[in-house]
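hey m, so remember when u said the tokens were messed up on ur end? i reran from scratch. heres the input so u can diff it against urs
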Amino acid sequence: MSFDPTPRLDGKVAVITGGLGAIGYASARRLAALGASCVLLHRKGEDADARAAALPGGEGQRHAALRADIVDTPSLQRAAAEVQAGYGRCDILVNSAGHTRPVPAADLDALTDELIDELLRANFRGVFATIRAFAPMLKASGDGLVVNVSSIAGFTGVGSNLAYVAAKAGLDVVGDALAKALAPAVRVVSVSPGAVESGFVPGRGAEFADKMAATTPLGRIGRPEDVAATIEALATTLRFVTGTRIVVDGGRHL
């Protein structure tokens, strides 16, 4: 058996929720560069079609952007039906959609019932609903991969707020359960960043990033490319990995 140091993804189809976000789009660029056709799911990106068209492409690749909201299951079902009709397959599902809001852990009153429900819906239920919608195609692939973009908050208990912590912890555990339930046709892996250079958490700017970098062993916070590189590896070389988390945080959790 020959060894290919740069496995290709020609003929594969990757669906990426939050596909216009920092991590989602960085992942799409990497997967597209290796030959995959990428479908970017988004809620309201006015430049979505242009950004899909700007992805690397070659012969046989067709990138697209589809509007879908992970908290709206019918929209996910429609998106899955469009992918089935347009591509006939889904081999890779990257769940990078979600949102949060900073609430100090000690401020119990600020974490209202409504906010808890909103964050669990967006960061846990919506991810599960996306997997549920695309599971038939992933299983039919016989070589499916689900990557859930999680967070070290899910095992450190420290994050933007406690509902976000709970959502990510739940996502990790359910991901492990799904890795067993969907095996051997589909692998399921959590990728857990720490702080990442993006606008994901409102109100956190350069001062916050500098503070996080100063207390991270590798001396900086993460970049979207760090997370995307891990997702690329799972799709190409890390093929005996399922039912676990890969931490990409520069040692932040230590």
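this time it looks ok to me. The chain has eight helices and seven strands. if urs says something different then somethings off w ur setup not the seq
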